[in-house]
Design goal:
Number of domains: 2
Oligomer: single chain
Radius of gyration: 29 Å
Strand order of the largest sheet: 2-3-4-7-8-1-9
Strand content: 5-15%
Number of strands: 9
Order of helices and strands: EHHHHHHHHEEEHHEEEHHHHHEE
Largest sheet: 7 strands, mixed
Helix content: 55-70%
Number of helices: 15
Structural class: alpha/beta
Distance between the termini: 20 Å
């Protein structure tokens, strides 16, 4: 089952393909200072065309160019500490919370009155509104008296106002609002791209993975399920290849698990999570923390009862026996057989995209590593390396690549051909 949506995707898999990706890797975890300097230069060449990164750098430079801004922010922190220590602080906080609730009630009643036509209800609601308005005024009066009696709160309000004026004069408020909008748009695009990629690669599962798993048997009962959670925490499975039972209502037979990652550097995150999930499905209690899996459906935190996934009007029942085909690799330990990956090829960096995002943020917001020479760069290197997990994408590629039969289970879409190819079927290199 292949549709034209996969026609431009050029898939590579097998030992040689994984070895080629490993040869391209620039693994952050093993870099020295010179290697890190080159690595960081490669990242900067990509980040500097990202509008959000450029905007963060602009904000950083704006802040560094105005030391009076940082001085006033320090003064504000001291004023906050003094205010919290004052005798009026607790009651002032209570008043702020009460005023917030009262304002919400007034807004809600005002909106209801605008829609109301019944005279008796109108009269009652107007009375309630007047009572809330009177309550609000009493709270404001008490707040004003407490502020007058608190030098610390008056200092805090004055310094906060000065800071707001300075931020506005420097254009910092406007710059941060622009950054927030860029980040929001970027997040929406990333979410849509992720969903689009999962849909785009679904035909590849039918084209390449299903034939691997279904060497014999009834294909009419085969299904590829998507977004399977089964009412448990930490178990959002991208794709499950299952066979329906002959008798309706009985548990399905899981033939394969497919993890879809839009970025090659997130392969290890998916691998680690699926190892834990498979241990949970099979009841290997020493390989997961039950408290992380506890939900209203699985109160014990163990997969000790049947669960149901619904898709396109069908119900699919799962039990522990559904995962009977999954076994740990002899002599190695993890579950490899029947665990597949589909990802887009990119440079393996030795850290996940989440870690790269943290590094990008620090580089954009902290310019000290540029100004203080090798010592600061070395500190940055150690911090970046601390973000890496013990097992990262190069390790997963190496693990699968060491076993020819398993190397075919990692499908990598070659980005060089992703748009160039327009033929009606995908190609596969082995």
């Amino acid at each position: 089952m292949v549709t034209s949506s996969s026609s431009s995707l050029h898939v590579v898999r097998g030992t040689r393909a994984l070895r080629r990706w490993l040869e391209q890797a620039v693994d952050l975890r093993g870099l020295d200072l010179d290697g890190f300097r080159h690595w960081l230069g490669q990242q900067l060449s990509r980040w500097e065309v990202d509008p959000a990164f450029v905007q963060r750098v602009r904000i950083r430079d704006l802040r560094q160019a105005h030391p009076e801004l940082q001085a006033l922010e320090r003064t504000l922190r001291h004023a906050l500490a003094a205010d919290e220590a004052s005798s009026q602080a607790e009651r002032l906080l209570q008043l702020e919370e009460e005023l917030s609730r009262t304002d919400k009630a007034i807004a809600g009643l005002g909106a209801a009155l605008a829609r109301m036509t019944d005279a008796e209800k109108l009269s009652g609601s107007r009375g309630k509104l007047a009572a809330f308005q009177a309550r609000r005024q009493a709270l404001l009066d008490e707040q004003a008296l407490l502020i007058h009696a608190s030098p610390a709160r008056r200092d805090l309000l004055r310094i906060r106002a000065e800071l707001e004026q300075l931020r506005s004069r420097l254009g910092l408020d406007r710059a941060e609002a622009e950054l927030a909008e860029l980040s929001r748009d970027q997040g929406l695009r990333s979410g849509h791209a992720g969903q689009s990629f999962e849909q785009q690669v679904l035909p590849l599962t039918w084209r390449f993975i299903v034939p691997d798993l279904l060497r014999r048997g009834d294909a009419t009962r085969l299904r590829v399920l998507r977004g399977v959670g089964l009412g448990a925490a930490r178990t959002e499975l991208d794709q499950l290849i299952i066979r329906q039972p002959r008798r309706p209502g009985q548990p399905v037979e899981v033939l394969g698990v497919v993890e879809v990652k839009r970025n090659l550097n997130d392969l290890a995150h998916g691998f680690r999570r699926r190892q834990e999930n498979l241990a949970w499905f099979k009841g290997e209690a020493g390989h997961y923390d039950p408290s992380l899996y506890r939900t209203r459906h699985f109160r014990s935190g163990h997969f000790d009862r049947e669960a149901v996934h619904e898709q396109e009007g069908e119900r699919f029942v799962f039990s522990r026996g559904s995962f009977r085909h999954f076994r740990r690799e002899p002599g190695i330990g993890p579950f490899l057989r029947r665990l597949y990956f589909i990802t887009r090829g990119s440079m393996p960096w030795g850290v996940s995209t989440a870690a790269l995002a943290r590094i990008r943020h620090r580089v954009a917001t902290d310019g000290r590593w540029r100004q203080r020479g090798d010592a600061a760069l070395g500190e940055m290197l150690r911090w970046c390396q601390s973000l890496a997990e013990p097992l990262e994408t190069p390790d997963v590629l190496r693990l699968y690549g060491s076993l020819p039969a398993r190397a075919r289970q990692v499908l990598v879409i070659d980005p060089r051909f992703e748009r160039a190819h327009s033929r009606e079927r995908s190609q596969v290199l082995t």
